[in-house]
Target: YceI family protein
Amino acid sequence: MTTATAVTPGTWTLDTTHTEIGFSVRHLMSKVRGTFKTFEGTLVTAEDVTASTVSVEVDLSSIDTGTPDRDAHLRSSDFFDIEKHPSMTFVSTGVSRRGDTDFVVTGDLTIKGVTQPLELQVEFLGEGGDPWGGTRVGVEATGEISRKAFGIDFNIPVAGADKAMIGDKITLTINAEAVLAS
Model:
């Protein structure tokens, strides 16, 4: 079994063709899911994995929920306001171990000029060689945020109910593969 203690120290770049940054949010009686197609990120791993760092920048105009009209609305000032705030960023502030392959990565998430803490539950999926002579690492991370905490509070009341059309809780899911710089 591979353990995170075996991670090669160094700088790793997200492989954007093998990484997905996704989300889900409640909409009426179901959930809407989406991804961001354009992003970049770096992981810097240390001998002591808990001294490692992560930084990611996401192009908010690259949102894709599978519905072009909804995506255009999400880019508008009702939600992300990409004209004024074209990207969101995450910069880690700490890593703690939760076993051989599980970690908690804490950091600062900035959306629309508002920075809030984010805690990601991270599972280390392994490290190994690729067919091109490189070294790769894989992780899966999940976390939750309140969209209202970032000033994203657009909503539509549902007639005859004590709720709104769009939920406040956003579930984030990141499936990442990164390549060690040579």
The CA atoms of residues 38 and 168 lie 24 Å apart. The chain has one helix and eleven strands.
